[in-house]
Amino acid sequence: MNLKSSFGLAALLGLSAATATAGVSQADPAALARAIVQKHLLVDTHVDVPYRLEEQWEDVTGATRKGDFDYPRAQTGGLNVPFMSIYTPAESEQAGTSFQTANTLIDSVEALVGRAPEKFALAKTSSAAAEAAQSGLIALAMGMENGSPLEGKLENIAFFKRRGISYITLTHSLSNHISDSSYDEERQWQGLSPFGKEVVVEMNRQGIMIDISHVSDEAFWQVLELSNVPLIASHSSARHFTPGFERNMSDEMIRAMAAKGGVVQINFGSSFLTQEAREWYDRRDAARTAFLEANGFDEEGEESERFSDDYRDQHVFPYATLSDVVTHFQHVIDLAGIDHVGIGSDFDGVGDSLPVGMKDVADYPNLVEALLKLEFTVEDIAKIMGGNLMRVWRAAEVYSRESSGESAVARAH
After folding, report:
1. Are 313 and 284 in contact (CB under 8 A)?
2. DSSP assignment of 104-159, as one string?
């Protein structure tokens, strides 16, 4: 029997150490870790399955040859609530295709549930996610990576909420009509656009979590000031270990976001974890740019991809380790406390750059085992696994209900 199906949400997030480890030897941390992931709610806020399958379809209801996620591996890893990333490329805003792309990917998640309702359930709310876990199903929640599909229309926030979107990452690798991007050298808005500021308010009103991964530092501080609900960084790590990498969060940002109840969901990509991996990518990118310019090749062409493959064959990639992953968790905890960190792996989104020991969704027990060896309690591990994120998700929903109630009262008078 799946013990997760035996408990309500509160129990899933707060089993006692004795209950969670009953019958498991304390001297065997690997076995204890496997027991913990099977008995506590495990949430990962960033899994790029939909776009992966859009590019090359595989049946993830069974075992797949490629990728980081499929149903059997998710079961092995104890994963209950993977947020399916509804990702629209930055270029889709200029092409005018982002709204179409987002809806196509949402349709694909619904189709996945329809093909295997005995394995998956669609989770549009925190309570639906908890109920699915109680029933032994994997709850497919959805987060929109890149706010471009809003297409300048506030009403599209409510539209995507109805479709099941529970968080929106305001931008991606290029600045868009909502926010400047941490990756984009051109900062047309100096943070949020005027429309972006309206988006923050409306997302609060609709009960959609605001994801500040990918935004510029200026945009982060503006969102933090405007939002009445805790924020999430759905797939970011600590900038302390990757100096100058704005895509990760600075110590000051981590503290400030935590002070308002937010959660940093640690990204597992090696370039998010170590400076060595970041510098490898910088060297590759510089070499590739020089090659393309010297030969008059297009940056998006086959020659660019071929050069990247050849470079990797000739230059050993410095994979991060499980220890590096844990170091980021520990750093956020040291800065902000145990209530403000969680898992945002970016599985299926960072290519062949995942750390040794954290290669796919079957490997969550390795993370838990490492935390146990550092003498984290089961209760604290349960917060990291999903309790912290569920708290923020519920807070967004509660604020939406309360603000809607206030609006109704105001209209009545």
Report:
1. no
2. HHHHHHHHHHHH-TTTEEE-SSHHHHHHHHHTT-EEEEEEEESSGGGTT-THHHHH
Going by their DSSP bridges, the two strands 165-169 and 263-266 should be labelled as unpaired
CA nearest to 196, candidates 175, 182, 217: 175
CATH fold label, 30-270+322-407: TIM Barrel (3.20.20)
pTM beyond 0.85: yes
3, 41, 131, 182, 378 from 8: Cα distances, Å: 11, 11, 8, 39, 18
With the CA atoms of 226, 232, 236 and 238 taken in that order, what torsion angle do they form, in degrees rounded to the nearest 10? 80
Query: Domain boundaries in the chain?
Result: 30-270+322-407, 275-317
The C-alpha atoms of residue 103 and residue 43 are separated, in whole angstroms, by 23
* pLDDT per position as a tens digit, 60-77: 999 999 999 999 999 999
